Amino acid sequence: MSVISSRVSSVSSILKAPGVRSQLIRQSNRVYFKLPKNLKSIIYNFETGNGTKDYEDLIHILRDSNMKDTDLKEFLANVRQCISLLGPTHKIFIETLLQLKWTNRSLEVTSAYKAFLEDLICMQIYYAKYVIDNLVEQFKPDENDVEWEAGQCREEDVQRLSHIHDVLCKILKIVPMSSKLLLQSLRGRFPYIVHGTHIHEVYVYALIQIFEYAPQLRSDILSLIINRLMVLDVNIPRLETDNKDEDLIDDSSECDSTFGNENNIVEDNDITETDKIHPIAHKLDVCMTLILKYMHNSCFLEGVLQIESLKSLYFDILQIFETVILPTHASQFVQYIIFYICSFKTAVVEAFVDWLWNKVSNPNIPPIIRQSSVAYIASLLVTANFITAGLVKTVQFKLCRWIHDYINMEDHLRYIRDENKEHSVFYSVCQALFLIITKRHNDFPNSKKYMLYLQEMDLAKIITCRLNPLKVCHPEIVHNFAEITRMYQLAYCYTIIENNTRSQLPIFGSEKTATITAENFFPFSSYTLHRSGQQLISLFRDNVTSSNDHKSNIKHKEDIEYMTE
């Protein structure tokens, strides 16, 4: 009795092992059956109505039984001989064949299956959508698959995706119009936000591989990817992005010196081993890594920049930026795609700034887009280390000239309506100019020459105009700007600031509304995603905190006062 009980307990312990019970149940439901060789007669009998049972049994065998590679290869050869007979009435039979797991079988079977799909597309175009949908769905890995280590694709995934891409490449060549079906399928089967990180990673990786054999689809596919990444971006809580992934804590010291809050600084004491990165942020981080890596690999060949490739990719991304990124409010990370490509060559960032400025200076464009455009200009100039001093001076001159033209136009009016919304673009441009002067004034070693340049900008007229930009711009920017202008003896802002503060005090019985402050939105202020951040960390200026700016200003004050004497 004891022997029997010991055997029972040993069997039960084996069945309790993870995965064993489910594997036995799965194997018990899939019994081996011999595939029929008289496929043509089965199809004929089904169409005449005499062999319905044999036809249904065949479908059940394909759906539920284990098939040997030799049998499946022979059966696919028989199917290819009957493809001309497999019209729309055999939709269920074709769908069952499309559901077969074939990418992990022997080379003979995969070759036979590819040949079957190619013949099916050539002779029965009706099934093109079903074939493409099935292939795209197979991009996604199983739910229980673990993530790639350090973003390196596993060999089995490389082989699986290679088989799928081979078929898609042949389909696009055989039926050029199938590209529309492919784009529809890629959109419809893109992983939802609730899907795991690994599914997003493999799917985006597979979509990027399509560029190799279908470059004409790159713009549409890139737009799809960035659009879906933007959905992830706007759903990440801002506080959650400051948490760190415990797997990356050991490597976080280098990142912390650049990535942080508004001044790109994070204290090491704030990081603990229990901190976890938000799951949506982790998905975005992995996908951003793939996009940035593709951008670099497509523009550089053995470390040498390929100008034509850069121009082509830049115009694709610029179009996506205009339609997807620029109109989106409060995105945190996706906009760094345009930041990254601007770092490849000075001509690119100059062209991008000119493009943004055309948006700002065009009165026919909605004000919210013009405000966002000038915010991108200011943030790019104060954050990126690939911005030249010449570009900074050029942009400052354009902003200042536009501001003076706007002030002169308003001075001709009899009165100025006390509604900040009517002048929202003006205040945003003023705020951008104040920020650029504050953050980049130390980049000019010849203080006397730069001071003469600032004097030509006539900043005193800007701050004393009737529109009163110091009242609307963000207080922190205003106070930093006031200190710089006092240091260079260009204007004295503190009297205006005090008057604005007194005028904003509440008065009992007064119907005066509070002043609306211009939004302090600067899209390149911080980047806290670690994996993709490694490709961006070297592109940021060594910005310092406001207190350090204050010390630096005091340090140079004596020299500047000497120059002004």
Write the layout of secondary structure elements.
Blueprint: H1 2-16, H2 20-29, H3 39-48, H4 52-64, H5 69-81, H6 91-98, H7 107-123, H8 128-137, H9 155-174, H10 178-188, H11 197-210, H12 218-234, H13 252-256, H14 279-299, E1 300-301, E2 304-305, H15 307-325, H16 336-342, H17 346-360, H18 367-383, H19 389-411, H20 424-440, H21 447-456, H22 459-464, H23 469-472, H24 475-487, H25 494-503, H26 530-533, H27 546-564
Strand percentage, roughly? under 5%
Q: In total, how many beta strands?
A: 2
The number of helices is 27
- Distance from first to last alpha carbon: 108 Å
Order of strands, main sheet, comes to: 1-2
Succession of helices and strands = HHHHHHHHHHHHHHEEHHHHHHHHHHHHH
Shape: elongated
Structural class: mainly alpha
Mind describing the biggest β-sheet? 2 strands, antiparallel
Low-pLDDT runs of 5+ residues are 1-28, 242-275, 507-514, 544-565
Let me know the average pLDDT: 82
Mind explaining what this structure looks like?
The chain is elongated. The relative contact order is 0.06. The N terminus and C terminus are likely disordered. Helix 11 runs parallel beside helix 14. A hairpin with a 2-residue loop joins strand 1 and strand 2. It has 27 helices and two strands. Helices cover 62% and strands 1% of the residues. With 565 residues, it is an all-alpha fold. The longest helix is centred in the C-terminal third of the chain and has 23 residues. Among the domains are: 99 residues, no CATH class; 161 residues.
